[in-house]
Design brief:
- There is one protein chain.
- With 336 residues, this protein is mainly β.
- The chain is built from two helices and 26 strands.
- The chain has three domains: 31-132, Immunoglobulins (Immunoglobulin-like); 135-231, Immunoglobulin-like, CATH 2.60.40.10; 234-334, Sandwich (Immunoglobulin-like), CATH 2.60.40.
């Protein structure tokens, strides 16, 4: 079969358009990962700063916007992106920088990338490693005491084990809303810190931080131990966890209802005017007498901006009442 010159030209022209079309990207904006989605920093000294970089690409056919990049651990580090407006085929580098002494021991944290990708608006990346602290704290650096009775003594000892030679600590300093006493003693292999909560008849939430300067080696951050607990009768808010829709079409505030009551010894009836409501941007609460004796009911309204914020990080709302330990409600984001 013979093909005329015009026919050959038409075939070649059609093939050229077909090849050119194969190089074009189609469909909506789509954020994809180039390379691994997890970076292992390995073992390092906690006093060092560390960083991890990820490469992303707009694999879709429409422009894509990266609206935010953030660490799930909050203050542990800073996340940055070198380009937030990506045309089809363009790439961006996202970097997570961990602050010195922000991690201790084995850790696995998330780097959250929020974009205009309609199928995956939040992409999660992972950073892990093992940070070796200058001083290991046992049983832990942040201790929850649980529920404590009023007018009783509570005591606890902490082992402080240096991971390097020549570590010297200074006298402890106490910041606390209840009266604490502490003693630091040198022992074989390190130090022992003894902490005592003196008897109190005042119910409430114990919040304490004990700081010790590192005298040697120089240039080190304070060693800190946090102690948190409930003393005496406490406030209870039910439910303790609220889940908020992350639908992009949610333009109206979301409402959730809570029941508030006192737990522990006989406390009497709660008064709506004395309940201290959370002070948080995007959250508005209304309180009234409850349907059951001794309870209050709270209606909380959550603005769309707050709902978007909890899509990447849980947010705690604190409710307080005089002479009662406070209570928290954890807000979580979900997809419908």
């Amino acid at each position: 079969m013979r093909i005329s010159i015009p026919s050959r030209f038409a075939i070649l022209l059609a093939l050229s358009f077909l090849v050119a079309g194969c190089g074009r990207r189609s469909g909506p904006a789509r954020l994809e990962l180039l390379g691994p989605g997890e970076v292992d920093l390995g073992e390092y000294k906690a006093a060092e700063m560390k960083s991890a970089t990820f490469k992303l690409i707009n694999a879709g056919g429409m422009p894509l916007t990266i609206s935010s990049v953030r660490m799930s651990c909050g203050a542990c580090g800073v996340a940055t992106c070198d380009d937030v407006e990506l045309e089809p085929g363009e790439q961006a580098l996202v970097t997570a920088s961990l602050s010195a002494n922000s991690m201790s021991g084995e850790f696995k944290e998330k780097l959250l990338v929020v974009s205009s990708d309609p199928d995956m608006p939040v992409r999660s990346l992972t950073i892990k490693g093992r940070a070796i602290p200058l001083v290991k704290i046992l049983p832990e650096a942040y201790l929850y005491t649980g529920k404590l009775e009023t007018n009783v003594v509570w005591a606890r000892g902490f082992e402080l084990i240096p991971t390097e030679e020549g570590v010297k600590l200074g006298a402890p300093r106490i910041e606390s809303n209840y009266k604490l006493a502490s003693t630091l003693k040198v022992v074989d292999g390190g130090y022992m810190l003894y902490v005592v909560l003196l008897p109190t008849g005042q119910p409430g939430t114990l919040e304490s931080t004990i700081s010790m300067p590192v005298l040697e080696p120089g240039g080190q951050a304070f060693l800190k131990i946090g102690i948190y607990g409930k003393i005496g009768p406490e406030l209870a808010v039910v439910p303790g966890v609220v889940r908020l829709s992350l639908k992009e079409s949610d333009e109206q505030p979301l409402e959730r209802k809570f029941v508030v009551r006192a737990l522990g010894s006989r406390f009497g009836e709660l008064e709506a005017a004395k309940l201290q409501l959370p002070e948080r941007s995007g959250v508005c609460c209304f309180v009234a007498d409850g349907d059951e004796l001794g309870t209050l009911k709270v209606t909380a309204s959550f603005a769309p901006g707050f709902t978007e914020m909890v899509s990447t990080n849980d947010v705690a709302l604190t409710f307080s009442y005089p002479n009662l330990a406070s209570s928290e409600v954890i807000c979580k984001g979900i997809k419908k």
